[in-house]
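S.,

As promised, the uracil run. Input:
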Amino acid sequence: MTAIAKEPPAGLRELLAFYADAGVDEALNEAPVNRFAEAPPPALPKGGDRVPATAREPERTAAPASDRARPAQPRQPSIDNAAARPTTVPDEAQATLARDLARQAQTLDELREAMAGFDGCNLKFTAKNLVFSDGNPEADVMLVGEAPGRDEDLEGLPFVGRSGQLLNRMLAAIGLDRTSVYIANVIPWRPPGNRTPTPHETEICRPFIERQIELIGPKLLVTLGGPSAKTLLATTEGILRLRGNWRSHTTASGAVIPAMPTLHPAYLLRTPAHKKLVWRDFLEVKMKLREF
Ligand code: URA
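Predicted complex:
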């Protein structure tokens, strides 16, 4: 018998394109959820305990990468993939642990290893890869973005997607490239769906990026976007006010590094009229480099 390929239902292609445009780029569940079906009455656990979130909302939890490649399996009523995974609620103890681990790392390799083994940030469990850095560890200029996106998560390298390509062009305009700069992010794991990292997640990851800056010891820092500037430059000012003016970042050992806050390339993709502002900021960086 010849198998006849079925046409997808009308409108499906458009719906998928709509989702892709809206940034929905991952299927989180293997089985579809019929949200129009009548919900069964909630089963109250014995003793009146709160039902854990993972049991109430399994569709919100991403399947582990290893599971995604497999064909759909019949659902097991009582086994939830998420239940097997550690779920860490960010708290002060995790931030303290991150600070200790970061301080103990004496080299970039040790720092990468410490971060790869750190389970204190929820984002690690939905990300595919740790995005540690790219570029030249001996560089005079270090650029720090906010957090990896989908392409960065897949490749394990910062700024390799569309905003990364724009960043490459911006660097080339002042005679730099990835062999002459070092690039990292405040947050080394992709937030699911590219959501904004929470303040807790940022505080937990902060010691790692601060140690990375200290170990690199760049002559100049360039922060890309508001979150990176706020995290590293001890300010609450908005990026449009901050950008273009030299600030400084002080490391744990007291070294003061001149820092230029500028706009994030992803913002420039949406607001190309502001490219001229970043051009000015990058020219400042180019001139400052002549002082060394
Ligand atoms: N945006 C960031 O802030 N960092 C990346 O690595 C990619 C996009």
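The two ends are 75 Å apart (CA to CA). Residues 152 and 230 are 22 Å apart (CA to CA).

- D.
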